[in-house]
Amino acid sequence: MGCCNKRCALITGAVIGAVLALLGGILIPVGNILIEETVLQEALIAPGSPAYDNWLSPGGAVYRQFWFFDVQNAREVEEEGAAPLVAEKGPYTYLTRYSSKANITFNPNNTVSYLLPLGAVFEPSLSVGPEEDVITSLNLAVAGAYSKIPIGLHPLLETMIKSSNSSLFQLRSVNELLWGYKDPMLKATVGLFVPYNGTFDGHYTVFTGEGDISKVGMIDMWRGSRSLPFWGDKYCNMINGTDGSNFAPFVDATKPIFFFSSDICRSVSANFEYSTELKKIPVYRFGLLPSTLASPVDNPDNRCYCRDPKTTKNCTIAGVLDISSCQDGQPVYISLPHFLHGTPSLHQAIKGLNPIEEHHKTYLDVEPITGITLGFAKRIQVNMMYGPSNVITVLKKIKENIIFPVVWMNETAELGDESASLLKEELVERIQMLDVIQKVLLGSGLAVFAFCLVLYAAIGCDHNKSETV
User: What pLDDT score does 48 carry?
Assistant: First the structure.
């Protein structure tokens, strides 16, 4: 009778273990479905959704750090044709994108339109010196005029340079170079980011995700158009992806993500590099490939980005993008800092450059379940070009066209502590808890089931032996 009771208890235990394991197994797909449905609802760009607050305004401070290339041998360059020697000076840091999106309008076709306010507030505590620090930099007016004026008008430019006592290089403060100064030669305001404060980026129209969550955040129109007017080619004029602040939920690490950057006037893609954590939240790190700014020789898709064969050595130079067509004709060339991934001739023409992948690449840290970008570093270098002239005195010793680095910037942001805590509480910890419950139920159920079966078999064996005796 006692043996029967033991067997019954073990059978009951095995059944309970099987039920627990079954519950754990059922909870996995059911839990995943619940998580998916919740995320799909919360990822919509709609007032009241968790994603809306993150989309509306930055979850953490967005900074722009500037490093200037201070020319150490300006006299030797002009008088002897020496290669420029530069020393990096920075960072000079500004708080940017501190305002929420403006003029928000929800449209009937599941899109929302907005403007992105631009502004910069100097942060002395995060800078190497005050805005009044002086840099020996390329003369923006002289270099700009040289690139725009045909050779036949070089005598006119020579007269303008001499009459204004201008030169190839100039002494200017950080504030002047960035935000503008009255140039004596052009009699106009000149600066790398003029105008900036009080202006807007956009007008953007993006999909809210309603009806098709895979399109959430994707740009439908920029400045009222579904394509760009800059490149004279359908492919290069495409506006692909989002603005980089968010992507569709459940990010697939095997596929690239696409985003549009108005700073470089084109869309780019980024590929998965590795998994990491940001404030204890798992993220996927995506980075730009070297092929993004490769020459058309190595990446034929970039052929339509080559605007001037003369300055790019018949489109064979890698690492530089001529964006003059989207800068009102101003001859500006964009690259990665220190010409990272650029053609060796770019580095050989300028002494003092030291490209380092870790410090100079662009990346985004994306939370893979929600698709929200929790951190990023957008690194861009602004360059201008000057070259030889038989007429212009300050250029007579120059031997070839030089793409000169003026400044590089790192626009960076990271999820704030309050937003990180909220995301962990609302998403990460709940998912982790559900995962633990699933594993505990499945594991303990299987363990109890197996234990009871083993004991049941052992008791059965002992009982058979006793009957035999």
Answer: 81
C-beta separation of 45 from 208 below 8 A: yes
β-partners of residue 136 are 171
pLDDT over 50 at 358, yes or no: yes
State whether 24 and 134 are in the same domain: no
Domain that holds residue 17: 2-40+428-468
Report the amino acid identity of residue 173.
Answer: S
Q: How far apart are the first and last CA of the chain?
A: 18
DSSP state of 426: I
- Is residue 411 located within the same domain as residue 438? no
CA separation for the pair 83, 396 (Å, rounded)? 14
Q: What is 95-145 written as a DSSP string?
A: EE--S--EEEEEETTTEEEEEEEE-EEE-GGGSSS-TT-EEEEE-HHHHHH
- The 3-state DSSP class for residue 442 equals helix
Q: What is the pLDDT of residues 100-157, one digit of tens each?
A: 899 999 999 999 999 999 999 999 999 999 999 999 999 999 999 999 999 999 999 9
Residue-wise pLDDT tens digits, 191-224: 999 999 999 998 999 999 998 989 999 999 999 9
284 and 145 share a domain? yes
Cα separation, 390 vs 396, whole angstroms: 5
CA-based torsion, 50, 56, 61, 63: positive or negative: positive
- Among 335, 297, 301, 300, residue whose Cα is nearest residue 316: 297
**Is residue 86, in this structure, part of any structural domain at all?**
yes
Alpha-carbon distance of 438 to 461, in angstroms, equals 35
Strands (E), 184-342: 188-190, 199-207, 219-222, 257-261, 266-278, 281-288, 320-322, 333-335
**What residues pair up with 408 in beta bridges, in sequence order?**
67, 381
pLDDT digits (tens, 9 = 90+) for 438-468: 555 556 655 655 655 665 566 655 544 455 5
Are 188 and 308 part of one and the same domain?
Answer: yes
